[in-house]
Amino acid sequence: MAEYRAGKAGINAEAQARIHSKYNDEIAQETLEWIRKLTGEPANTSGDADNLYEVLKDGTLLCKLVNELQPGSVKKINQTTMAFKCMENINAFLEAVKKLGVPAQETFQTIDLWERQNLYSVVVCLQSLGRKAGNFGKPSIGPKEADKNVRDFSEEQLKAGQNVISLQYGTNKGQQSGISFGNRRQM
Question: What is the similarity comment for this entry (predicted)?
Answer without folding.
Answer: Belongs to the calponin family.
